[in-house]
Write a structure and sequence with these properties.
Number of helices: 8
Strand order of the largest sheet: 1-8-7-6-5-4-3-2
Distance between the termini: 15 Å
Number of strands: 8
Radius of gyration: 16 Å
CATH class: Alpha Beta
Bound molecules: D-xylitol-5-phosphate, zinc ion
CATH architecture: Alpha-Beta Barrel
Largest sheet: 8 strands, parallel
CATH topology: TIM Barrel
Amino acid sequence: MSYARIEIAPSILAADFAKLGAEIRAVEQAGADVIHVDVMDGQFVPNISIGIPVVESLRKATRLPLDVHLMIIQPERYIEDFVRAGANRVLVHQEATAHLDRAVSMIRELGAEAGAVINPATPVATLTDILYKLDTVLVMSVNPGFGGQKFLPVAIEKIRQLNEMRARYNGAFRIQVDGGVEAENTGELAQAGANTFVAGTSIFHTPDPAAATRQLRKLATEAISQRV
Ligand code: DX5
Ligand code: ZN
């Protein structure tokens, strides 16, 4: 099944923005599958990060798919701009729009992969009626807004629930996890059913981001091979 594939998605939020090109090349050469880009508006989350021009520059700097995580209210206002800038996958928060179905449809019509994101306090059941349209479900394992926070174990049970749901409905979505992902929890997350591992601090705040990328992949792959 295609969703069994592991993806390691370094989050550039933890990279050195003054040498983004070099940081990305290092993880790309180490086998990163996706580059995760966190867009924050200072409203939906209490922080401001980067926007469309940075996605345009990243598009020229790497051949890897760009995963754009929109932590902005009413994301539908900017979906087209981000896809035109080079986003391959756009992730919108369930909590940030009254019209999740419309936002997801917009992403798909523009030819990108569509993902829905749930905060730690948002139940998986809020996505039941849209799962059939999703390429990815992103389970936040921290309250979004900042890198370097402690992993919230509530995410593990949600990943298990989603894993059961996709088996039952023969769904084809990927399960992504974001926030506090590190060597200590990657195996358990993979066993619960996660496919895409977003990691900022545990990759870029280490002496060797390439080695950290390879290690996360190894841990996830080993855990999946032990899954029955
Ligand atoms: C948090 C962002 C994350 C963040 C993860 O709001 O969505 O992608 O970069 O950072 P770490 O891996 O440091 O928790
Ligand atoms: Zn993110």
